[in-house]
Amino acid sequence: MRKIPLEERKKTFKEVALGFKKEEAIKEAKRCLQCKTPSCIKGCPVEIDIKGFIKFIAQGKFGEAIKRIREKNSLPAVCGRVCPQENLCQKSCVLNKKGAPIKIGYLERFVADWERENKKRTKPKLKRRRKEKIAVIGSGPAGLTFSSEMSKRGFKVTLFEALHKVGGVLRYGIPEFRLPKKILDREIEYIKSLNVEIRTDFFVGKTETIEELKKEGFKLFFLAIGAGSPKFLGIEGENLNQVYSANEFLVRINLMRSYLFPHYHTPIKVGEKVGVIGAGNVAFDCARVALRLGKEVFIIYRRGKEEMPARKEEIENAKEEDIKFIFLATPKKIISDERGNVKGIVCLKNELKEEDSTGRRTPYPLEGSEFLVELDTVIVAIGTKPNPLIKKIAPNIELTEDGYIKVNECFQTSVPYIFAGGDIVSGNATVINAIYQAKKAAFFAEKFLKKCMM
Amino acid sequence: MRSILKKEILVSFSPRIIKLKVEANFTSSPLPSQFVILMVSPYGERIPLTIVEKEGNAITLIFQEVGFTTQLLGSLKEGDSLYSLIGPLGNPFRAQKYGKVVVIGGGVGVAEMFPVVKALKKEGNYVISILGARSKKFLILEEEIRSNSDKVFISTDDGSKGEKGFTTQILERLLKKERIDLVYSVGPLLMMKKTSEITKLYQVKTIVSLNPIMVDGTGMCGSCRVIVGGKVHFACVDGPDFDAHLVDFDDLLKRNSRFVEEEKKILNEKNPFISKEGNF
């Protein structure tokens, strides 16, 4: 895909990938073999009729194409951008054998963008109204999807969000240069157009409890609160002033727009040499944000190049943008100068040994192999865990040992009228996984409500 | 929601102390130490303010104009609206019967001690309140606290009212003289630190209400992390109240200076986009 020129890209938060032009999209769509038994669809967690929408694109019928996608996915402009298609739909494309699978993600993105740019949005028919009120807690991909699914089924949906803006990780986590917020806003407008009522600045469990909402007539609850509590390394020096969790760094940048300080009023302070600990998508987002602030950036990862869990495309982008890598390093302590500013991070060299349950080799730090990476800012991007406030939000539901919500195969929690999905059920996963779970949950939630009505 | 119903200037000297009654969307009665996070404008930052009182759907917030955002907030008029407000956040202080208690507040911290004083009194404690201010003209809520306390002491830095000196000097004198069952301290960090040092000597259980830099206020970023008992806690969800004797005050003092330069910068900025107007 075309990208904005490298030198410009390193200085702005503008979207890196430019998207297909009409002709490019049609040409790519025409490569699709229209398999009799398409394996790509099985690779998509929400089973979009990929073959179908691609055929429409090949015929130039973009309106039909997007309609076909929207039958299964309410966030196509998002998924077309952030899904790891190389591990999902595109992985199972038969053209892989020839080394060039259909660029399904780019095509999905193309028609979603086409729809928006041409204001072609058609509202789906909503089923006859039902009187049951549904409360969706959390407005990330799972919450947005569950809301739209239930609204399409005719229920009265209210979506509760604690922050002042909707979108969850799509808003505060994924930076503008991967997912422009204008595009997210339009996806949310679509969901609003399905009669979903959105209430921001509302912390269920604090502003009002589930019990109180029940008394107001809410019949079913869907918990989609994500797993947004940052993990720290637990090493010396981690409380120094220029050590951020990835969440704090990204919330300040993406949600509060502190890169536009003082135009926006939230400050951020980043030195000249930034180290990001971790190599997942979040780490790459942090690194590429820091780079755009004009800094020299290092990704410090405990395993090797091959094991990095981030998307290949983003790793490629980061390399092009001159992000540097330090592999096989375990942070031991963060050191400061006499004024208390971060001076560097002491790491141990790792050796990779046997494979763990994820098939990646386990790193072992070597005694006495300390080395210093000189830095003045550290961003810790080693994952998140469930927010302990979950016990305040839903005091009676059963949790796993790690604090995630336990659900049955219907995404129902131990309290029958509370369903849950997304990262708070499965741990850190993908946007499309959250969408998948929310869709499933909506299917079972409707069944549950019907049964209760009988 | 979020509209400013009433504005009262408690201290008109700079930095002013202002009391706002703001419409809030929560039905529950907030408990002492709980706070809201608000944004003045869509460009704004998120700042925490303690809920002083709630009547009906109106909450009382009291703040001092110490920086850019509080000045912006102070420039709002009755009828204006805040861009965002969420609460009640934080772990409440749940008052119980302790016996004889001392509550210390310094500066605008006196507003934050008020709900604590009221709650402790209601539980049947003998409440001694110590109020501190830099001078007489910066002293707030004296009457309100007096009518909820058994005894009130006042100290001012310049001696213009009450005793000349610090609240902690009065506390030390009390501790020497009589048995105190609980001390609660809220205000400037150095005051809370000093309180803690003194009560440690006398082995009196002490609670402080910490004031680290917050962003979301819901436990998702760790900006407000503090070290308590050697472990990292997030003040917005685990606090803001902590056992004073376990708090690493020096760490917090250092962390609260994180954006000092940026705060100066925005105050001096002549950027036309930084609007000080009330409505957005």
How would you summarize what this structure contains?
In chain A, 34% of the residues lie in helices and 17% in strands. By secondary structure, chain A is of the alpha/beta class. In chain A, a hairpin with a 5-residue loop joins β10 and β11.
Description:
The complex is a heterodimer of chains A (454) and B (280). Chain A is of the alpha/beta class and 454 residues long. Chain A is 34% helix and 17% strand. The radius of gyration of chain A is 23 Å and the shape is globular. Chain A starts with 5 loop residues before the first helix and ends with a helix. In chain B, 25% of the residues lie in helices and 30% in strands. In chain B, the strands form 4 sheets. In chain B, strands 11-10-9-8-12-13-16 form a 7-stranded mixed β-sheet, sandwiched between helices. In chain B, strands 1-2-6-5 form a 4-stranded antiparallel β-sheet. In chain B, strand 14 and strand 15 form a beta hairpin. The longest helix of chain B is centred in the middle third of the chain and has 14 residues, at 109-122. Chain B is globular, with a radius of gyration of 18 Å. The A-B interface holds A 162-164, 200-203, 206-209, 212, 228-230, 232, 234, 238-239, 241-242, 245, 247-248, 251-252, 256-257, 261-269, 340, 387-389 and B 2, 25-28, 39, 41, 43-46, 68-69, 72, 83-89, 215-216, 218-223, 225, 227, 232, 234, 237, 251, 254-255, 257-259, 261-263, 265-266, 269, 271, 273-274.
